[in-house]
Amino acid sequence: MKLKLILLILLIPIILSAETELETKYLKAKNSTNKSEYKTIFEELASKHKDNRFGQLSMEELAKIHILDRDYDKAISYLKKIHLKEIEDKQYWLARAYLKIGKYQEAIVSAQIYIASSENVENIETSYFIIAEAYLQQKKFQKALSTLESLRTSSYINNQIPLLHFKRGNCYELMEKYEDAILCYRKLKMDFPYHQLSYLAENYIYNLKNNKAINIDLSKLNSHRMEEPKVETKAATGEDLKIYLQVGAFSSKENAEKLGKKVKKIGYNYKVFPKIKNSKQLYIVAAGCFENDKKLKKAMQKLEKNGLKSFLIKRYD
User: Fold this and answer.
1) Between β-strands 241-250 and 311-316, what pairing exists: parallel, antiparallel or unpaired?
2) Burial of 38 (0-12, 13-18, 19+ CB in 10 A)
3) b vs e for 226-240, b when ≥16 Cβ sit within 10 Å of the residue's Cβ?
4) 110-166 confidence digits (pLDDT tens)
5) How many angstroms separate the Cα of 51 from the Cα of each of 47, 55, 293?
6) Which of 37, 171, 180, 309 has its CA 20 to 30 A from that of 149?
7) Contact 133, 99 (CB under 8 A)
């Protein structure tokens, strides 16, 4: 018994040393910008240490590489070998790969599993869109719309609101509910006039008008803003309403402040707004405020160049 204990004590440093060596290799690959180099390291780790944590993480990285290369079958092959529960993004990447090869039911199941088990708000948001797209491809338009409605009323819709409006418009149009489609496209144009999907929405509205799918006044739809009712309240007149660019939303205030500091380094003031949604506390990170559309558009472009997607929000301070 004593001999076994002594051997175990002697082996612990060796085991820890081997684990450290694997971690060092993995981090070297993660930090490398040379595709040939990091891919080779990941392949070595995945092949020789397939049950080790860093071997499993390497499989996930290889799957991402193959998804970018559009080799979806190879990506799925690697993802299926991952068995560590801590690597929860496995289902997210499976959903994306399945969608690309037309395995729509598998994509839906993987995305649903991911939504139920993950806390990654950004990927959960994308997972809803994966489910909706899978239903659309199967011509199950009502199910697609229901999925988008679930996202719209959830706490997960943060960074892809323009896409939500656009996809809801698509669903209604495919269901031949043209008035509802127009409303969605119009909402996109009004709230996000500089977003690339806004220009597509304008084309869709025009096509519906031109094809006489619906009798509607196009000139009103081309306006980015509706005329407000003349009610002498701040909410109605827009008095003191400030314009910001939302760049993120977090359940942690600490993480929100980290992103805010990044916005500050880019050159803009920021604010963190607390928000309760579906009984959950969120912290909204917003750049601004901005005095006019010209400054707003310039800021949006600069933020995007620095890796931050944003969209317009209005609020009273």
Assistant:
1) antiparallel
2) buried
3) eeeeeeeeeeeeeee
4) 999 999 988 888 899 999 999 999 999 999 999 999 999 999 998 888 889 999 999
5) 9, 6, 54
6) 309
7) yes
Residue with tokens 């997607």: 309
- State residue 70's pLDDT score: 94
Cβ neighbours around 174 below 10 Å, total: 14
Q: Which two tokens stand for residue 71?
A: 């080799």
Q: What is the pLDDT of residues 51-89, one digit of tens each?
A: 999 999 999 999 999 999 999 999 999 999 999 988 989
92 closest CA partner among 76, 110, 74, 106: 110
Contacts of 9 (CB under 8 A, 6+ apart): none
DSSP state of 223: -
pTM of the model: 0.64
Residue 260 CA, distance from chain mean position: 18
Q: Which two tokens stand for residue 150?
A: 């679930």
Dihedral of CA 20/26/32/38: which sign?
A: positive
Contact between 244 and 287 under an 8 Å Cβ cutoff? The reply is yes
CATH of 234-316, one of 3.40.50.920, 1.10.3720.10, 3.40.50.1460, 3.30.70.1070: 3.30.70.1070
On the CB side of 180, how many CA atoms lie within 13 Å of its CA? 12
* Amino acid type, 57: L
In this structure, the dihedral spanned by the alpha carbons of residues 243, 249, 255 and 258, taken in order and rounded to 10 degrees, is: -30
| Domain ranges across the chain | 160-227, 234-316
Beta-bridge mates of residue 273: 284
